[in-house]
Write a structure and sequence with these properties.
Layout lengths: L8 H13 L2 H8 L3 H15 L4 E4 L2 E4 L1 H29 L1 E6 L1 H8 L3 H7 L4 E6 L13 E6 L6 E14 L2 H4 L13 E4 L6 H5 L14 E2 L2 H9 L4 E5 H9 L11 E12 L6 H19 L3
Parallel strand pairs: 3-4, 3-5, 7-8, 7-9
Antiparallel strand pairs: 1-2, 5-10, 6-9, 6-10
């Protein structure tokens, strides 16, 4: 496209508009500039082309024989550009970018996405697997799913689900766990990066965390879950992490008690922009799915 380097795009736009709208004033109104500016752009383009597109008459600008063919092709070309830009805007309008922690995405959200797509086939999800706090006004993220106390200023927060914790293990290991004190004789799988403490769940039973046995340690909750499924010990889990494995019979919760962490799941969105339809649809669906998860852990 070396020919495009010879001319200025503003000259092409102005000339096309004059030809299509049959006048300088109409072209100036459409482009939002002065009549003088349009006239100058046309003149500069004609100089770059080394041939006139219009003949100046007392009735205004009239296209030359060359100009008629040239203008028709310009109009066709700009129509193609307009269509490309509209398609880009349409595509963006139907792509929903959601920031979500990797473990929540892989163990809970991704297995459910077919249900969202069935309800909203016109929305394409783009998942950004991250735990970094996101500023919706300074990124392309439409919504972030975060776990915390909700103390994030400058954003809109929609509460979704309180986070509860409880022990889980493979069914074979669960046969050895009759009462909570039995945990002191079972291997314990620990997440080295987690801020969740065994003491939160153990305290009501008068058990200290340091009474628990040793076991494998990992720096990722998903790896801890895999180790628990493999029968390597008991881990401290939560609803969204363990629901699928429990439903599939890979894990069991040997005790019915749940402990509240004081944290919750939140949908975080912009506080300065109204929610787009696609974002509202996703949050509504997300809340319903998390409600179903809550009911699975009475």
């Amino acid at each position: 496209m070396t020919e495009l380097n010879r001319v200025h795009m503003n000259g092409l736009r102005a000339t096309e508009a004059v030809g299509r709208l049959s006048g300088l004033q109409a072209a100036a109104d459409e482009l939002g500039v002065t009549v003088g500016a349009v006239s100058q752009h046309v003149a500069r383009l004609e100089a770059a082309l080394a041939r006139p597109v219009f003949v100046r008459t007392s009735r205004g600008l009239v296209a030359t024989e060359f100009g008629r063919t040239f203008l028709a092709r310009l109009t066709s070309g700009f129509a193609e550009l307009e269509g490309a830009l509209k398609s880009a805007r349409y595509d963006r309008a139907n792509i929903l970018t959601v920031s979500v922690a990797p473990v929540l995405a892989s163990k809970w959200l991704v297995p459910r996405l077919a249900r969202f797509s069935a309800l909203h086939p016109d929305i394409t999800l783009r998942l950004d697997a991250s735990v970094t706090l996101v500023d919706p006004d300074a990124s392309d993220v439409d919504a972030a799913i975060r776990v915390g106390d909700g103390n994030w200023p400058g954003v809109t927060k929609t509460f979704l689900l309180p986070q509860d914790i409880f022990p889980v293990c493979a069914p074979a290991l669960a046969n050895r766990l009759r009462v909570p004190l039995d945990l002191t004789n079972a291997p314990i799988i620990r997440d080295a990066n987690s801020t969740l403490k065994w003491s939160t769940w153990l305290a009501p039973f008068g058990i200290n965390e340091d009474q628990l046995a040793d076991g494998h340690s990992f720096t990722d909750a998903a790896l801890c879950l895999d180790a628990a499924i493999a029968g390597q010990g008991v881990m401290l889990a939560w609803q969204t992490l363990a629901q699928y494995a429990i439903g599939a019979g890979q894990l069991v919760a040997p005790f019915p008690q749940r402990a509240a962490t004081g944290l919750g799941y939140w949908a975080v969105t912009s506080s300065s922009q109204s929610l787009a339809r696609k974002t509202r649809a996703f949050i509504t669906w997300l809340k319903a799915e998390l409600d179903e998860t809550r009911l699975a852990f009475p």
